[in-house]
UniProtKB/TrEMBL annotation:
Pathway the protein acts in: Secondary metabolite biosynthesis; terpenoid biosynthesis
Cofactor(s) required for function per UniProt: heme
Recorded family membership: Belongs to the cytochrome P450 family.
Name of one Pfam family that matches: p450
GO molecular function, one term: oxidoreductase activity, acting on paired donors, with incorporation or reduction of molecular oxygen
Residues holding heme: C392
GO cellular component, one term: membrane
Keyword Membrane listed: yes
Keywords: Heme, Iron, Membrane, Metal-binding, Monooxygenase, Oxidoreductase, Transmembrane, Transmembrane helix
Subcellular location: Membrane
Protein name listed in UniProt: Predicted protein
Main location class: membrane
Amino acid sequence: MLNPVFSTAHMREMGPWVSLPRILVSNKVNFQYPLSTTWFTEWLRASIAQKVTDVPQEVNCSSKVTTHTPQSIALIQIDVLSWMTRTAMELIGQGGFGYSFDSLAEGATPHPYAVSIKGMAPALLKIAIARSYLVGTAVKIGTPRFRRLVVDLLPWKNLHDLRDIVDTMHKVSVEIYESKKRALLNGDDAVMKQMEMGKDILSILMRANMDASEEDKLDESELIAQISGLTFAAVDTTSGAISRILHLLAQHLHVQEKLRREVTDARSKHGDLSYDELVSLPYLDAICRETLRLYPPVSYASRTAREDIVMPLSKPIKGLNGKEIYEIPILNNTNVIISILAANRNPEIWGSDCLEWIPERWLTPLPSSVTDAHIPGIYSHLMTFLAGGRACLGFKFSQLEMKIVLSLLVESFRLAPSDKEIFWQMTSLTTPTVVGEGGRTQLPLKVSKV
Ligand code: HEM
């Protein structure tokens, strides 16, 4: 049964783009994780082993800068961002839909879906002005079939590129959905076989939808839309967060070493870490929290007021006339930008060292300036995953991903900065680039086997 708080009717209200069974991601209910740490751990470790058994030869590595440390350990330079993007894509594929997008083998041909979803944001940007002014009206004209004909006939390359991207994503989503539907109709055993654990988000949603009352049922297009909605929300956010942590670990070697010690100690004590053992590693947790505080992958969100309100201020500000202002009237339909970054870095809440990356701040009880601030965010007094009814649905999922990937990588690899200067650009999603290399998103780091 779905979480009673979030019925299928609630999901419909949220719209096809975003709805999914919150039971999987809510901390208010039984936490049934679709992503089994065991299979993922095994799979990632095998991929790592395959990739680095022979690091010194490094014939397989995409970027080939080899240097030697005093201990004669080979360092290879790799684009960490691209590997983390592929990993996050595969994780939502398997955890979300029981589907594999990527073998994670070096040089594997990217899945068309992965290429399309990566290209979607840039393609949307190219027609941004037209979208702002035309789409609202255009979608009201004629039937979908008619509108599609108009899109096909218009001599507009950027629009056709976007159409092709959407077509590919839709085609793959329908294939995933249909194969799962066939398996479900053949009985649960077949589903288990097809998806190994049968615990992926889409299977659970489809099963719940079969049992839902007619009134509550989502229609097929709404179910299919979850695939792209989830993937789009899950991949670049999580891969950006993991990449940022790896970059920081490369810059702060003492933190990296301390984390490695925590992970290796736990591994020698417990072997493969269970969910509980992994999430209770204090330093790993502190590193994740501190990074998500100081460098939230999404730095702002926008909302539109749906009614006239008066917004109280936490403390008064001085107006131009010198008078103190305690609240701000906001009219219906006003667009409001919420700065996630500013809330997470507020010196009055986090102290004068708020701009420094200090994982240790999470190892002792937080100061009352933090606990009394009543930040509405769903995670750790932070706005990183936003707040309220439309907060991030995947925040637990992403934390588990981060912790599994980081613990495995740090146990197996040492990271060091490359000789390139990295600049994290603050687009709607914060992404790393190399200064002087044209804005292409990448994060070269030097990596050696532990
Ligand atoms: C570090 C990783 C992540 C961060 C920082 C993050 C952050 C956010 C933020 C700020 C929003 C609100 C955006 C807005 O409304 O303007 C959001 C929404 C959402 N996120 Fe995440 N997210 C992350 C990972 C994930 C993952 C892994 C999933 C899926 C498994 C996911 C699924 C969603 C969905 C479905 C929404 C839309 C929720 C709604 O509108 O009701 N996110 N996320």
